[in-house]
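Our preliminary data section would be incomplete without showing what the modeling component actually yields. Below, a chain of 483 amino acids is followed by its predicted structure, encoded as tokens that our downstream tools consume directly.
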Amino acid sequence: MTTESTSVPSSPGPWPTAGQALGLASLAPRRGAPDRLALPEHRRARPGSGAPLLAAVDVLAVLGGATFLGAGHHDLRLLLPVVALVLLLDARAGLHRPPAHVRALDELPALASRAGVVWCLAAAGTAAYSPTLALGPLRLCAAYAVHVGVVVLVRALLLSRRRRTARNRPRSALVVGGPGAARRFAAAAAQHPEYGVRPVGIVGVPEQVGAPRPAGESGLPVLTTTEEIHRAVIQNTVRDAVFLDDDPGLMTLFQHYGCTTWRVGGRGQDGPMGSHVWGYAWERVVPLEERRGLTAKRLLDIALAAPAMALALPVLLVCALAVRLSDGPGVLFRQERVGQHGRHFTLLKFRTLRPSDDAESATRWNVAGDRRMSAAGGFLRKSSLDELPQLWNVLRGDMSLVGPRPERPYFVAQFSKIHAGYAARHRMPVGLTGLAQVHGLRGDTSIEDRCRFDNHYIDHWSLWQDVCILVRTAAGLVRPTGS
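Predicted structure:
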């Protein structure tokens, strides 16, 4: 349990309503409460349904280039590595899922550079594998030229067909942002259907919820609650959510609905020049579930938590004995916490204080200095040894080693009302430690600062950053401060 310099209402309150918080917390009712806003069945967004076809074009281009290599170079043992490398490089560059209105010429530099690397490696590998089959410069250049020509020509035909399909069957979209900017983008998209976007409504960002509608202005409806968003997504078969202003909570909400999320209007975005909607920069926001390495994150959790729990077994037994002798029966303390996507789970800790009742356990924020706490309990809290049983939560999959720290449902509800972006912390599995904690945001520190660090961690997550945070946490244990 940590102490924060944030005022919290003294009496329990309900979860924030949709109009109070447009984040995940508004979608997670308390256990046993009726679910007024049932999410539709999750659909995986498919912004590039032609990905297998574009991958097949890569294979065709390699085979076309191989026809100029001469006899003996059609051995599958030589061609398969070339095909695999082309597919890997193009997939990692996002070339199998191009933006909505991109043209083949826009992608030519990316396609040509990767093809050049692959064919140079193929020539070097062939010479090493069989010197008699070494490629001469003319044949190598011919194979490369045919490869690039085939891939650009066929992709041009496919992308042209996709643009015609987008114009004839545009996808319903909701635009998220300030009413003025959102209406201007919606008008541009409506006047240029070739981009395949058909705005059907505007979603006010949290700061603008409830803002008065401009006098005499008609057109697209302005949605200000999750109930209205829910209804619009179902009734209009909304497939895309276009963000003019970043809002992690709303992005996560739309991704749960199975919508593809896009960020427009920014500067300095990567991608080809053709990736725009009538001059608005256009970039897909990749959902957390689709990011590379999340499986590795889970494997890292298991690989580290399992031996750590085995090595810590003597320490766990000593702590359990100390709690039993000083505080009596009930060594483990179980408490309901909010995890990823608002799911509740039971967090384990060594008991350091016996609350008077369940209400105190659920709603009392700070117990530091409580005279009921024994010397053993105080030592466990100061040294953070009371958190060791959470290694079992990590092994169970309730938590990760690194992520935003989990909190109780009552406080999640309160902080979601007070701090913008707090509910968006639940996009990622909660953790034993996190970016906020290694920056000293433990104990009597700002909830707003912790929320900002947690969302920054999620937006820029990488497996290496998890390793760095774990190393910094281990180093910080030399100077324990506890909570």
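The radius of gyration is 28 Å. The first strand starts at residue 171 and ends at 176. Preliminary results of this kind motivate Aim 1 of the renewal.
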